[in-house]
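User: I'm new to structure prediction. If I give you an amino acid sequence, what do you actually give back? Let's try with this one:
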Amino acid sequence: MVTKLVDVLLLPDMQPNFGLMYDCTAVVDVLRASTTIITAIANGAVEVIPVKSIEEALEHRAKGYLVCGERGGLKPQGFDLGNSPLEYTKERILGKKICITTSNGTRALLKAHTLSRHVYIGGFVNLSALVEKLAEFEKILILCSGNEGRVSFEDSLLAGAIVSRIASNYKTEVRAENVFLSDSALIVEKLWEKFGFPNLIGTHARKLIELGFTADVEFAKRVDYYPVVPEYSEGIVRGIFSNTLR
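Assistant: Good question. You get back a string of structure tokens that encode the predicted 3D arrangement of the chain. For your 246 residues, that looks like this:
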């Protein structure tokens, strides 16, 4: 009897492999929106609101929000913070409300709520906490944000790590009876098996390094740095802290 169904969308515009509403969706954008939002919540941001456009983000300043995000990897004019997780220190964002818009990650978040009731945000930095939360559900979707409409190596690698962790929770000899993986879930699982660590060497990683964000790429490689899972619900991201990983 199947107790877990795991599917992966390599891009937000792809169609789900199963014609159903999932119990939960994990949105991943390793470089960098997921890592940045996780860091913001872990360091005390009250909430994060993702929006599509720069104009929408700027409108939130009058409501008391820090206006944050990027276009082309760089902070837009008039924004308080960019999309570097290293900017989101406790000193800067503790107790603050944040509105963020990015090229890929926030768009994926806005799509995710159409696919399931529960939407979470994942990175390598909260891998164990995320898998712990996903284990509560039966029909699981991992939604990769991609890179400007193209498949992201880094997102695919993280998706593979999540799939591998979920599958390994079951004994190998009975896995076929307990976990059903879609073809895309199998693909990313095999990718993770090949590397086995956050080897961030894709196109977007190289672009960020060229822009001077090498430290961001290195930070995004940290596994289980935070025991928090941001949840996106009714347009707002707030944090769920893991009791077992604190």
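You can read the tokens as a compact description of the fold. Here is one thing that stands out. Strands lie at 4-9, 22-28, 47-50, 65-69, 97-101, 116-122, 139-144, 179-181, 228-233, 236-241.
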